[in-house]
Every structure is written in C-alpha cells, then in structure tokens.
Design goal:
Layout: H1 18-21, H2 27-47, H3 51-58, H4 62-69, H5 78-87
Helix pairs in contact: 2-5, 3-4
C-alpha cells in the first residue's frame, strides 16, 4: 500500500488582530467593536435574557439583538455598543494618553 503524500502547510503568525490579518479596512475599529459585541453576548447569556428582553434593556429592536448574537454589528457604532453594555450593567472607562509612536493605537481591555 502506497504511503499518502502530504503537502507542507504554511503557517503565518497572527498580528493579534484577525481583521488586519485579513486585510480589512478599519481593522482596529472592527477589533474594538467585535470585543464589545462578544461582551454584550456574554452579558445577555449571563443575565438569562431573551433577545426581546435584551433589546428592551439595551434600547434596540430584537432583530438587532439577533444580529449581534450572530456577529452582525456593522450597523451599530462603537458608542451604541458601549451604551448597550452600560444598560446591561457594565462600567466603561476610556483612557487617553500620549503615545510614544507618531500614531497612537486603540485598544480594548475587558476585565
């Protein structure tokens, strides 16, 4: 029986931002928004809310909650996502400081 031939697999290290790795525009913004959406999803599940209840609490229609839970967040701004987290019982703190680099960076830390 002949031994199956395998081809080498090229592995590329991630930059830490899958959106940048895929070459998408506004990759940093997408990374921030996706982190907020992940935390919203966790909060809705932790609180045991239905999509209808979550929508009422966050001030958005159930259809948008459904979209969020499926990863569709293109139609919501970072500000609205932060407002949703506030309404789910989260504090949000934004820190601004000078950067050592010529261009600053955005980052999101969920504690």
């Amino acid at each position: 029986m002949a031994k199956p031939q395998t081809k080498p697999i090229n592995i590329e290290a991630s930059s830490g931002n899958v959106f940048a790795d895929l070459g998408l525009p506004d990759a940093e913004k997408l990374k921030i928004k996706s982190g907020l959406v992940v935390e919203i999803t966790r909060a809705v599940r932790r609180l045991g809310l239905t999509q209808e209840d979550a929508g009422r609490r966050m001030g958005i229609p159930q259809a948008k909650v459904s979209g969020l839970m499926r990863g569709d967040f293109a139609n919501l701004s970072e500000r609205k996502l932060m407002d949703c987290l506030n309404r789910l019982g989260y504090d949000i703190e934004i820190k601004v400081r000078p950067s050592a680099a010529p261009m600053g960076q955005l980052s999101l830390a969920i504690i």
